[in-house]
Design a protein that fits this description.
By secondary structure, the chain is of the alpha/beta class. The protein has 7 helices and 6 strands. It has a 6-stranded parallel β-sheet with strand order 1-6-5-2-4-3, sandwiched between helices. Helix 7 (179-186) links the parallel strand 5 and strand 6 (198-202). Helix 1 (20-44) runs antiparallel to helix 2. The longest helix has 25 residues, at 20-44. The two termini are 31 Å apart.
Length: 203
């Protein structure tokens, strides 16, 4: 009954290549992680190594997002961030309003820096945002009070409980372990009250 009242939702995945420097960082860390993992498994076995394995995989995911979120002097760029810039520029010129989700707050800050370079205004919400401020940000965005087309949200803090039907495009910058969490993020915009078709892009 609910779905019949909603407009269309279009989902697509977009793949990109890493920059040359980014790819070298990824390969180097991958080789190092393989060696560390072999030693870890030999010493402690799989069951006791789960946290270490998760940490290694998380680091590889961060490099795929943008090595600069943890490498202080890194200047080799990010293929994914470049792609996001193209998508956002095209979407804004087409009159779209966008939610961008990432699980990494450092990545959201990097995206914010790139948006500032593009002279694109944005709102920002993560786990440290106070409850009253969240309400104000959501209201301002939905009512388009300050002509702000982009809302950056951490997946954990913004994935549930927020009504953001002022957006008609949702971008998941990095995939989450549990796809249902990504669906919850998309449902911030694709819910009762939404009058436009919604695009969901997974990078």
């Amino acid at each position: 009954d609910v779905l019949s009242e909603l407009p269309e939702k279009l989902e697509r995945r977009m793949l990109n290549e890493m920059t040359e420097h980014q790819s070298k960082v990824y390969d180097a860390y991958f080789i190092q992680a393989q060696k560390e993992l072999a030693a870890e498994l030999k010493k402690n076995g799989f069951e006791k190594s789960r946290i270490k394995i998760l940490a290694m995989l998380t680091r590889l995911r961060q490099i795929a997002c943008d090595p600069a979120i943890f490498l202080e002097d890194y200047t080799g760029g990010s293929g994914k961030l470049d792609m996001l810039e193209e998508i956002v520029a095209e979407a804004i010129s087409g009159g779209h309003r966008i939610l961008i989700f990432s699980q990494f707050t450092q990545m959201l800050q990097r995206i914010g820096q790139r948006l500032s370079q593009m002279e694109v205004k944005y709102y920002y919400l993560d786990g440290s945002t106070k409850a009253q401020e969240r309400i104000s940000l959501v209201k301002n965005f939905n009512e388009n009070r300050e002509n702000t087309s982009v809302f950056l949200l951490s997946l954990k803090a913004g994935g549930t409980g927020l009504n953001l039907t002022g957006a008609d495009m949702v971008i998941n910058y990095d995939p989450w372990w549990n796809p249902a969490v990504e669906d919850q993020a998309a449902d911030r915009a694709y819910r009762i009250g939404q009058e436009k078709n919604v695009q969901v892009i997974k990078l």
